[in-house]
Structures are given as structure tokens and as C-alpha cells.
From TrEMBL:
The keyword Endoplasmic reticulum applies. It is a multi-pass membrane protein. Keywords: Acyltransferase, Endoplasmic reticulum, Lipid biosynthesis, Lipid metabolism, Membrane, Transferase, Transmembrane, Transmembrane helix. GO terms for molecular function: 2-acylglycerol O-acyltransferase activity; diacylglycerol O-acyltransferase activity. This is MOGT2 acyltransferase. CDD domains: LPLAT_MGAT-like (cd07987). GO terms for biological process: diacylglycerol biosynthetic process; triglyceride biosynthetic process. The gene is Mogat2. The keyword Thylakoid does not apply. It comes from Anthoscopus minutus. It is found in: Endoplasmic reticulum membrane.
Length: 244
């Protein structure tokens, strides 16, 4: 976990996390555990990561998720976290969601963000600063069966996602005693870089133009964050983020 700016513990923050990857390993490890020393990097800040509401329907597993700071991905839960009057809450949203997992191939930098504006509207309604975060290596810990758009596999995956709410990427990596096939992730680093906050003016009912303006600022800041740090993580100079 890499910090590029200080976060005031007397404020709440909304972090957009990119990319989803196959299993969102970077988001879980960095915002739901102390594996990367979150409390040391951001003292006084309590992270909460949004997860598909489906997983909270299972007894005991739901309690395990909540013990790690995970909350259901609905507006009510998000608003509750961002309304803390004394501040100190951080809400992390994997903006691309389950659909973006289907594009999680090694070396891919395709983000489902162009028409994802709900998190921006939420930030404006609460006057919460937006913070972009990019996880380098997130797409490299698993291989996924090729599923280009228009293929029969992609059509089936999209159809199942519409029915169940979760995507089903066909992924593989290594085994315990061999490195050729299995479901254990490859030994590749995931480095999540947290950008600087983007100030947001509070407005209960923002117009579409106001949402679009802040959304474009966010995209620009995320692109700048990627371009500034990509060389440190061996990303080719001619590789850039692609927004769909």
C-alpha cells in the first residue's frame, strides 16, 4: 500500500479502487486487513470496503465479512459510513464491479468507468472528497480463459451475471507443489497506490452536468496517478488506461 497524500482523520473519504481483478485481492488485503499497515499509513482512518450484497445473505459468513469492515454494496450502507459527523471513515468502492472482472487479464488496463457515475453523485451529496486508487499487479496474479467480447463464453458469462449478480471468470494460476496449473495465485506483487483527495462541494441534488464535471476530474486524476507511477512497476511506457 503506497500513500501519496495525507488524509485528515476529521474527514470522511470515498476511495475509488481500480481495477477489480479476478478476486479483488488487493482491495481486500489493503482495506480489510493490516497486511500492508493501513493504520500506520493512515492513522485515525477506519476503512470500509463495499462488497456485493449477495454474500451478506449467508449466516456466519456475513459476520466474518463484517468483522473485516466489509459492507453491502447499497446506497444506504454507503451513506451510513459517509455520514459519520466526526469523520475518520473511508469508504472504498471497486467501481468496475463484478463486470470488470471479466476483463482481468495479465497486462490489461481496461477499466469500466466511463458510465459509472453513481459513486461520484454519492460523494457530491455528502460533500465527501474523492480519492483515486490504482492497484498495480491486480490483474497479474491469475490467468483467465480468453473471453473477448462477442465470444460465446463472454455471452454466457454476461447472461449469468445478469441473473445472479456475480460474474464467473474462468481463472487459473498455480498449485501448491507445481507452478503449471491450480487456483493459488501466482507469486506476483500487488502494489496499491492511493492518490490525493479531490475536493467535492456538497449538494443534495447535483445536476447531471455537475456530476459529469467531477467525474471527469476523477478520471483525469486517476490517469495522472497511473502515468506517474507505472514505470516503478515495470509497466511499458506505451501502456495507458482504457476507459469503457
Amino acid at each position: 500500500l503506497i500513500k501519496t497524500a495525507e488524509l485528515d482523520p476529521q474527514q470522511n473519504y470515498l476511495v475509488g479502487f481500480h481495477p477489480h481483478g479476478v478476486l479483488a485481492a488487493g482491495a481486500f488485503l489493503n482495506f480489510c486487513t493490516e497486511a500492508s499497515g493501513f493504520s500506520i499509513l493512515f492513522p485515525g482512518i477506519t476503512p470500509h470496503l463495499m462488497m456485493l450484497s449477495l454474500w451478506f445473505r449467508f449466516p456466519f459468513f456475513r459476520d466474518y465479512l463484517m468483522s473485516g469492515g466489509l459492507i453491502p454494496s447499497n446506497k444506504e450502507s454507503a451513506s451510513y459510513v459517509l455520514q459519520k459527523p466526526e469523520g475518520g471513515n473511508l469508504l472504498a468502492i471497486i467501481v468496475g464491479g463484478a463486470q470488470e472482472a471479466l476483463d482481468a487479464h495479465p497486462g490489461s488496463f481496461t477499466l469500466l468507468l466511463k458510465n459509472r457515475k453513481g459513486f461520484v453523485r454519492l460523494a457530491i451529496q455528502h460533500g465527501t472528497p474523492l480519492v483515486p486508487a490504482f492497484s498495480f499487479g491486480e490483474n497479474d496474479v491469475f490467468d483467465q480463459v480468453k473471453n473477448p467480447k462477442g465470444s460465446w463464453l463472454r455471452r454466457i458469462q454476461c447472461w449469468l451475471q445478469q441473473i445472479m449478480g456475480i460474474s464467473l471468470p474462468l481463472f487459473h494460476a498455480r498449485g501448491i507443489f507445481q507452478y503449471s496449473f491450480g487456483l493459488i495465485p501466482y507469486r506476483r506483487p500487488i502494489c496499491t497506490v492511493v492518490g490525493k483527495p479531490i475536493p467535492v462541494q456538497k449538494k443534495h441534488r447535483p445536476s447531471e452536468e455537475e456530476v459529469d464535471e467531477v467525474h471527469q476530474k476523477y478520471i483525469n486524476e486517476l490517469s495522472n496517478l497511473f502515468e506517474k507511477h507505472k514505470a516503478k512497476y515495470n509497466i511499458p511506457a506505451d501502456s495507458h488506461l482504457e476507459f469503457i
